[in-house]
What we know:
Alpha-Beta Plaits; four-stranded antiparallel sheet
Amino acid sequence: MAERVLKAIDQDEVIAFLQELVRVPSINPPGDVREAIRLCAEKLASAGFTTNTVGATAEQVNVIGTLAGLATGPRLAFNAHVDVVPIGEEAAWSHPPFGAEIANGRVYGRGAGDDKASVTAQVMAGVALARSGVPLEGALIVTTVADEETGGLLGAGYIVREGHVAADFVIVGEQTMNQICVAERGAVGVIVKVFGVTGHAAAPWEGVNAIEGMARVITALREELWPLLAKRTHRYLPASTATISMISGGVKTNVIPDSCEIYVDRRISVGETEESVTAEIRMLAERAVAAVAGLRIEVTPKVSRMAHESDPDSLVGRALQEATRFLGKEPVLTGFFAGTDAKHFAPNGWPTLVVGPGQPSTAHTPDEWVGIDEVLEATRLYALTALALLARRDGATNE
Length: 399
């Protein structure tokens, strides 16, 4: 059965489809992905998938393609996104951002790796499984979505929240060099505000300078919290981190500032929570300004997503590992350093792993690229994993 499925993968068709997708400028914002979604829906439908295109807006739509076998079998969902980040300064590109040019065994273009390589591999893996005629239990559900680059609420979040997809296992496609990511860091955004008292800048003793107070807070965070975070390690994930990514404050050049605000981008590991992160920052900030009369601290979480970890020995984890070995490689279990659409699936209790072609270091860069061999390998890997989970063993057909 594996050989039947692999023979159904047309390598030229796979790469041509990737090029077709890359040539669609599905930049987010604004996030109009209609043409890219249409291409995916048509490709799936032509292979026999039932397709349903849904979305909260007319422009940011998602397609759910279903290849159904027996209703009693498991449901495996693939997920990847077609929205891409802006190109930045076009002069920095050696290849046209939406040209999908091939050079040195690579496809170049915005979204070539992040994430249209995964989209291509998942769609074409589904197509190969359908064309092979291998009888299935359960269903393969290919979800191709919008909006991942701005959080996914209108993409994966929408289709899960509105009940358009339900699964027993999920594989999210992102740039992992086809390594198996069984864990993913979360994030908490924290606003820290320091309040002081205004006064004339010529008489600084008459006020309480909030910016100078914030300097104390920043110093405390860097000298006390940052080293603690570096020690919070996980077997699959990078250590916890924090970055002060925005700052604002002041009233006028000749006025003592009565407020200053920073945004702390805090990347969290499994077990850390919004509450624990906020409390830790609040304690350090309050202690940092305690010696200055008139300063007050306010710490507020703004956005958060939990880190998650799935069992590598779950059925989908084992299937991915065995598929990797079938292709002649030893599986590598690792974790994903940033956020993906997995955050929308994992809270439902569905084992959710992140696997896909491409190097994460090329994402969002000029001359973004993906290796052709990696895309083809991912297509085979997805197809064999679906086969391992869904193939019927009794020799019956789907008719």
